[in-house]
Amino acid sequence: MEVLQAIDRNKLPKHIAVIMDGNGRWAKERGEDRVYGHHEGVLSVREMVNTCAELGIPYLTLYAFSTENWNRPKEEVNALMELLVNTIRKEVDELKQNNVRMHVIGDFESLPEICQKELNEAKEITAMNTGLNLILALSYSSQWEITEAARKIAMDAVAGKIKPEDINDGLFHQYLNTAAFPDPELMIRTSGEHRISNFLLYQLAYAELYFSPVHWPAFRKQHLYEALLNYQQRERRFGKTSEQIQTNTPQHV
Ligand code: IPE
Ligand code: IPE
Ligand code: MG
């Protein structure tokens, strides 16, 4: 509770991105199968979504399945896809009630049809919601996303829709899967790994990175509060000097 009270509600990040890692190790430590860890991880997703909604954080992106995760054993991949379908089915009503709007980023067509159908329904059902935007990264990798963006820009240039000299950071953002969302300000990775693993490489340019030793299935709201407090104690300089930030010197453009 103390940590929550220390958090400045006016300085919360607008967008939190999470690499939910450590399900397998958490399960192994308990003598269980990796898939058990994935199931328990869903409870942490629930708590994360509810806590972000309570705090009024507008965007939450969860890395649920990477392009590289397709290379895992077939049984684990199948179990994860099944878990995805069942979880969406079970949770969609509550998401709707809690004013959560669901979005998906990643190579949607590569997902099994049943997943696509369930996700499309959930997106439709929650489309009018105005609270938390919950963005699931599925079959997602940043290098895939950036390569796709480059290909679409090239096609539009060839078709005469844009000129090469129009290509700038703003235009590039519009071709990314995340075009409708602001860039994350805080990125949390659980389970003690200090890497990005192909997640939002472009969008995380100025995000604050927070690494928690806690495995994802054990990650609770208290851990999120600690991450938020840590985030608020940092100075975000965006290339400027500390003095400029403190005296609010007008931006040089
Ligand atoms: C994260 O947990 C979930 C997914 C990548 C789908 P892991 O399954 O990577 O768990 P560890 O890292 O092997 O412990
Ligand atoms: C990153 O976790 C992907 C997701 C959390 C979905 P991984 O466990 O797949 O990442 P690496 O292999 O340890 O880098
Ligand atoms: Mg992992």
From TrEMBL:
<feature type="binding site">
    <location>
        <begin position="195"/>
        <end position="197"/>
    </location>
    <ligand>
        <name>substrate</name>
    </ligand>
</feature>
<dbReference type="GO" id="GO:0000287">
    <property type="term" value="F:magnesium ion binding"/>
</dbReference>
<feature type="active site" description="Proton acceptor">
    <location>
        <position position="69"/>
    </location>
</feature>
<dbReference type="GO" id="GO:0045547">
    <property type="term" value="F:ditrans,polycis-polyprenyl diphosphate synthase [(2E,6E)-farnesyl diphosphate specific] activity"/>
</dbReference>
<dbReference type="InterPro" id="IPR018520">
    <property type="entry name" value="UPP_synth-like_CS"/>
</dbReference>
<dbReference type="GO" id="GO:0016094">
    <property type="term" value="P:polyprenol biosynthetic process"/>
</dbReference>
<protein>
    <recommendedName>
        <fullName>Isoprenyl transferase</fullName>
        <ecNumber>2.5.1.-</ecNumber>
    </recommendedName>
</protein>
<comment type="subunit">
    <text>Homodimer.</text>
</comment>
<feature type="binding site">
    <location>
        <position position="38"/>
    </location>
    <ligand>
        <name>substrate</name>
    </ligand>
</feature>
<feature type="binding site">
    <location>
        <begin position="22"/>
        <end position="25"/>
    </location>
    <ligand>
        <name>substrate</name>
    </ligand>
</feature>
<keyword id="KW-0808">Transferase</keyword>
<feature type="binding site">
    <location>
        <position position="26"/>
    </location>
    <ligand>
        <name>substrate</name>
    </ligand>
</feature>
<feature type="binding site">
    <location>
        <position position="21"/>
    </location>
    <ligand>
        <name>Mg(2+)</name>
    </ligand>
</feature>
<dbReference type="InterPro" id="IPR001441">
    <property type="entry name" value="UPP_synth-like"/>
</dbReference>
<feature type="binding site">
    <location>
        <position position="34"/>
    </location>
    <ligand>
        <name>substrate</name>
    </ligand>
</feature>
<dbReference type="InterPro" id="IPR036424">
    <property type="entry name" value="UPP_synth-like_sf"/>
</dbReference>
<keyword id="KW-0460">Magnesium</keyword>
<feature type="binding site">
    <location>
        <begin position="66"/>
        <end position="68"/>
    </location>
    <ligand>
        <name>substrate</name>
    </ligand>
</feature>
<comment type="similarity">
    <text>Belongs to the UPP synthase family.</text>
</comment>
<comment type="function">
    <text>Catalyzes the condensation of isopentenyl diphosphate (IPP) with allylic pyrophosphates generating different type of terpenoids.</text>
</comment>
<feature type="binding site">
    <location>
        <position position="70"/>
    </location>
    <ligand>
        <name>substrate</name>
    </ligand>
</feature>
<feature type="binding site">
    <location>
        <position position="72"/>
    </location>
    <ligand>
        <name>substrate</name>
    </ligand>
</feature>
<feature type="binding site">
    <location>
        <position position="208"/>
    </location>
    <ligand>
        <name>Mg(2+)</name>
    </ligand>
</feature>
<feature type="active site">
    <location>
        <position position="21"/>
    </location>
</feature>
<keyword id="KW-0479">Metal-binding</keyword>
<feature type="binding site">
    <location>
        <position position="189"/>
    </location>
    <ligand>
        <name>substrate</name>
    </ligand>
</feature>
<dbReference type="Pfam" id="PF01255">
    <property type="entry name" value="Prenyltransf"/>
</dbReference>
